[in-house]
Amino acid sequence: MKPFLLLATRAEDVPADEEYALFQRFTGLDESSLVRRRLEAEPLGPVDLDDYSGVFVGGGPFNASDPIEKKSAVQQRVESEIAALLVDVLARDFPFFGACYGVGTVGTALGATIDGTHREPISVVEVCRTEAGRADPLLRGLPDRFTAFVGHKEAITVLPPAATLLVRGEACPVQMFRVGHNVYATQFHPECDVEGISTRIRAYAHHGYFGGGELDPTLAAVRRLPVPHTGGILRAFVERYAR
After folding, report:
1. Could you report the per-residue pLDDT of 84-104, keeping only the tens digit for each?
2. How far is CA 229 from CA 71, 72, 127, 226, in A?
3. Considering the entire predicted model, what is its pTM?
4. Which CATH superfamily hosts domain 4-241?
């Protein structure tokens, strides 16, 4: 089997390594079959998609909608590299799955409206499949309504016609979409469990996701409901596209 490629952007080692371990756990892939590239640490360089079964993009503190003057040189480089790769991905309809930051990257490539209108505090929310989502191979077998981990400062306000809405939410309407047949993005985090998102809450306590004194309530918020289904979406992606 050709490996899958994980593009990561977290600069902090603990949440970065835990994210990689979570992707391995929920996809069923090991280190040889899930190749990680930490883009915040080094340039991506040329990527031949024919070397891979598919591409994942993990989450991170970057916001696609930030004004250019507020973006670091590293963020600008990372965005440029992912954007260049997405040109090839979208042209080929190549298997791609972006989690949280994937909405910003794919949405930007499509010309979507991305802003802070539908930001969500870190928590567990209930989302629901659309009619198209019920028919999508990655979501078959999931209940129509299921829980998911969220926490983001930006989201898609207007989904372009080129994208198909698969999962919607109450506070954030665009929770998962597909472009073509094989390019996916979620606003929620299918790669998380309670321990993993708790690590991120502590690591990013001063990144503006919640205010001072709200650490304990935020940690409690991600434990208010179980999240048993979303990891299966990643496993379904691998099962569909491994080659």
Report:
1. 999 999 999 999 999 999 899
2. 35, 36, 11, 9
3. 0.97
4. Class I glutamine amidotransferase (GATase) domain (3.40.50.880)
